[in-house]
Amino acid sequence: MEIYSNENEQLNALRGFFAQNGKALAIGVIIGIGALAGWRFWSNHEDGSSREASSAYQQVSSALDASKPETLDAAAKFASENSNTYGALASLDLAKRYADTNQLDKAASQLQNGLKDTSDANLQAVLNVRLARVQLQQKKPDDALKTLDQVKGDGWTAIVADVRGETLLSKGDAKGARDAWSKGIASDASPALKEMLQMKMNNLPG
């Protein structure tokens, strides 16, 4: 798995990969996995019924607009009716729209539903990281820490360390934050991410 500076960088890498391969797939929400893993992920799901679900998902996802409640309702309906990877992807998309408009309870609920809909480890990691961020915004640091414990895989070490450090700092645990960020710096993270974590450590009191 490639390691990137942040989730947006991972997302851009996936966009480039699928564009080069001519795959009009729902890549906007799959982060944290390398191009090869992404290709295998979608190849395993491109059978007949899956192609239908993929097409329907893309229509729902591309129409999402937080200023148009009917598009959110359509995405929620799709997610509730598809207990599969595409339902999880719709929940992830929908959670972002809710989080952007500070509807954090709805965002958390969608992410939790998405976790029930997929067994793919990489997608579960995405959902759990996003859920931990939302829980931190909800001022539920203990819940966020438990959620982060569910994220597996070396490729996620630095990103999890980043969120864990922020969460511990919100609890007043500066030492715990320092330890978390130190672990991220010691991992096989990108130079940019290591630099960001170092800056956070440098800004800690004491």
Automatic annotation (TrEMBL):
Transmembrane annotation, as ranges: 24-42
Primary localization class, coarse: membrane
Membrane topology type: Single-pass type II membrane protein
Gene Ontology molecular function: protein-containing complex binding
A matching Pfam family: TPR_21
Alphabetical UniProt keywords: Cell membrane, Chaperone, Membrane, Transmembrane, Transmembrane helix
Subcellular location per the Swiss-Prot or TrEMBL entry: Cell membrane
Coiled-coil ranges from the UniProt annotation: none
Top-rank lineage group of the source organism: Bacteria
Family annotation (Gene3D superfamilies): Tetratricopeptide repeat domain
Record's protein name: Ancillary SecYEG translocon subunit
